[in-house]
Write a structure and sequence with these properties.
Immunoglobulin-like; 4-stranded mixed beta sheet; mainly beta
Amino acid sequence: MKFSATSPKGDILLQEGDTLEVNCSINLTHPRVMGLTSKHIQFSFSKHEIPDDRLQVTQLDDSTAMLRVENMNASTPLLRCNLRHPETKKEIPVCDNQIDVGCKLLKMRFINS
């Protein structure tokens, strides 16, 4: 029985300027997360700092939190979803997703000579 999941699963591919949306869900009946809810889910990026004012975290229900970041810059951060226990402050790793944000392709115009 899994205690967590992210959606979309696996690597996430975006173009520069796209919006990133990731749901992180926990199984509330799993012994590892008993007593914790989506209020305890935290998102963080490694290898790339995104200002806190650009991170929008919404609790969709007791088991799921959604991260939304608009206008992503070209980068390759690792997104971490963790549970933070309110009393012990211990972090429980939930899921990692590799994010790859590439540059938009330029429109090419050919001129015949």
